[in-house]
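Hey, I'm writing a tutorial for new members on how sequence and structure tokens pair up, and I'd like a real worked example in the thread rather than a made-up one. If someone can provide the structure for the chain below, I'll link this post from the tutorial.
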Amino acid sequence: MVGGGSGAFIGAVHRFAARLDGEFRLVAGALSSTPDKARASAATLGIAEDRSYDDFAKMAQREARLKDGIEAVAICTPNHLHYPVAREYLRRGIHVICDKPLTATMAEARKLAQVAEQSDALFVLTHNYSGYPMIRQAREMIAAGDIGTIRVVQVEYPQDWMTDAVEAQGSKQAEWRADPARAGAGGSIGDIGTHAFHLAGFVTGLKLDSLAADLASFVPGRQLDDNANILLRYQGGAKGVLWCSQVAPGHENGLRLRVFGDRGGLSWHQEDPNYLWFTPHGEPTRRLTRGGPGTGAAAAAVSRTPSGHPEGYLEGFANIYTAAATAIRARQAGQPVPEGLLLPGIAEGLDGVAFVDACVRSAKRNAAWTELRT
């Protein structure tokens, strides 16, 4: 693991996810750029002293030479480090599992795509919400034509944790997210808007053609956006709306998706993830439950517990990690990666950074319609 040391929320999440199905062991880490913190974090996690590093490049070089060196690396750093860290490991044939977004800038995203193409190693991006069972159910139903031709997509992701200037009040998680040098050009659009954008595309199968983005930084002195209202035009004619906000009091992690076609509609809410609401046109709304009647193979494949037992955030992450393990083992055996793993990778990462880039370009032109450029 690179990054994710003491006090880093997302590092702990990645470790939980990697362990949940027993597919990974954490044996080495460059957990902090501060040597003392790196060593202390490694000791807490049971990493041997000689496999704790204070430099990610040194770790890549030494682990690539070791007979029992690491097979994969998890990148849990701020956005600006995703490109240099991933590049270092991909060049040495070490598989990469990276937190989103792909990189901090479009130029870095394109360069990383070239590195990944030339590497024998896999690159996986942890868009964990695509691993939720009822999201897989929604995707399966849309692909089967259950709601007909898609007309309208509505996706929102409101939070309230940055309603105040918490980046100036000692919040480590807020500090780098509010810093363009570390987060990139997007604030809320890069942090949570990319999740909403990816989820809408993952479930519907639609490709975004253009958008019109109104970005705002409501907290005085904040350099990056903390709220975004975005109109979407998809290829094929469907229209959409994406709202993401980190200054919406009363919302903790309110990712919500609605999709409407000419034969019906679907609705899902991340804070109540075991349920998918399906309304066939002209009929009463039906509540589908994870593991319950009316759900299919796609949801069952990523479920672990009987119906009625909540599964959500950590399990969604774990589904990405377990699929990554399956893909890595196939690659090591000289076999093709099995179909149906639905692993987000470089292509989805490029789209996500292009989404942020298009939002910023649109906002600078008074929310003008702007095409995505990957």
